[in-house]
Amino acid sequence: MNRYYQYDHMDLWQDDLWEERISRISGLVNYVGTVKKLSGNGYEKPGWDEKEEAAHYHSKTGSVDDPAVLDALLADGMTAHIRDMTEHWIAVVPTQMLGQRVERIPALMVCLQADYKDIYWAMKTLTEYEEYQRAARREKYMVIYVVSNNGPDLDRTYVNVLQEAAALFPVDTERIYMDISALAANGKRLSDIPAFSLPKADGEVCTDPDSQAILLWKSVPALLISGNWEHRGSLARDLVMSDKYSTADYDRERLLRSRTGKRLMNGIWMEYTCQDVNDERLRNWMEGKNVRLDIHESRGERWLTVAPKGALEQPEEKLPLFCVMQEVYRGNEHLAVTALGYFEPLIELAAEGECILLFFVMEDPEANDQLSELIDETVALYPADASRVYVTGHSHDGRYALLFAVRNLSKVAAVATLGNFMGLEDPSMLGDSKQVLSDEQVEWLSHQELPCVNLCGCKEHGGKLPLNVDAAELALRPGQEYGRIMRLDDRIVCWQRRLKAWNCPERTADEIVAVRNSDSRVERELGLPADREMVLFMDGFEHYIGDIRNRDGRYLLRMVGIENLPHVPSPSMLDLAWDFVRRFRRDPETGSIEELY
After folding, report:
1. What is the DSSP string of 367-418?
2. Which run of H or E residues covers position 84?
3. d(Cα 507, Cα 512) in Å, to the nearest integer?
4. Nearest Cα to 395, choosing from 153, 60, 53, 110?
5. Does the structure show a pLDDT above 90 at 430?
6. What is the pTM of this model?
7. What is the DSSP string of 171-230?
């Protein structure tokens, strides 16, 4: 690979510069994920016909729920949560511990592989590891299964899984263990695993096999991995460089050579240079931008603000507040740096005096409602305009941004969802009712006003675009066909659901499919009918912008597809998100939406 956009004579796209930043247990996870395979023994499929099976199937996780298995767990005091984060995972938690975060409990991570073609993979996992779940109930801890598709977790998805689990459930991050029974079963020691090492208490690296002996924890051969599972790399870089987050026709070399690649490197450099949110180098970087980074804590949760110093000196001039739903909570101290680097172009906007930024997100809609209080705190502390509050987030945080806006509509003037599907999935399609709007919320929203722009890459994994093409016809990589919305009819229903939520005229399936032959480049690329179109060339790529007019004649819904972009928030994506939301204001007295530009 040629060298592109170097910082201090370093090409940060290269893997070798990040080796010391990756999770210290990566080699161990890869080994265990290679030898520990789901056997499926002990589980008997229910005698369902195709219709009954389809009623229990969730496309997001590519799995079937068997009430007999899940109800048996509930009867035993445990609740299973089946989730997806490119790799699938399951959390089994003592039911009595759910819904509270005061008492923290240990967690046992179990890494294994399964075939995603088998839609009963989750039920087979829960059945095969019944003894683990019983032990977890007795000893009051939770089990986290990271189930990779036919191989080890080479992309270190387990790091994101543990981070999300720590936000969703009352995990004691000082007591996270990894099941290493596969080593014992194969006569291996920790020292036999290539590139595996843990630091001693004094900080020196320990490779002594005797000091890394396999211990029994809660009757399971396990290793304490707290402080060693975290990944201190670059999220944006990982998404650009990994095949998991793009379709097979994504041109990575073209992106790296483009101005998009150059601008992405600004945030990647921040992640490479700075270790945590208190790093002096991060402070110096912020000072150089003439912005102030403040770290806050409310109700035990951390949140950040970035404000232009000029605005702080002139508090009578109110600025819009842009809420960025990206993880900054404790557990992995590099998370906050990642959030700032991931959304670095918005910091540039703040430096120009355009807005004040607020960073916060948890991992369920109820917990995210705390953002409403944080908005009030920010308006009280800073010269922020309460009538111009905007919300954004990428990937599943984009879903949370939309859910927050709907649940707290009076607080939000506009929302920008990034890296999300153009349509609105219903709970049965996504397999997670807490990440999507319910039918009742869609109906309610259709009578409200919420300006929304949704932006995604044309080469995102799973094939989000064009919408009116069955994903199976797109250039999917092996494994991407499982756990995604596949069928054309589902994709059409999702778009019709989106139109209903924004009070836009209905479109038939024939009308949606027909734009494959449209004269409009925008309609062909997005795969949906638009009422107003524009093609912009920005940072080396075409951007396809389609506006949808609602029944009142207003353009409050915008869809944007970006050429040759995988699942990453590019700087131009953030520029266009800001360009859309900044146009709107919510009248604090009437609640109506006013267009400013």
Report:
1. HHTHHHHHHHHHHHHS-EEEEEEEEEEETHHHHHHHHHHHHTGGG-SEEEEE
2. strand 78-85
3. 7
4. 60
5. no
6. 0.82
7. EEEEEEEEE-HHHHHTT--GGGSTT--EE-TTS-EE--GGGG--EEETTEEEEE-TTTS-
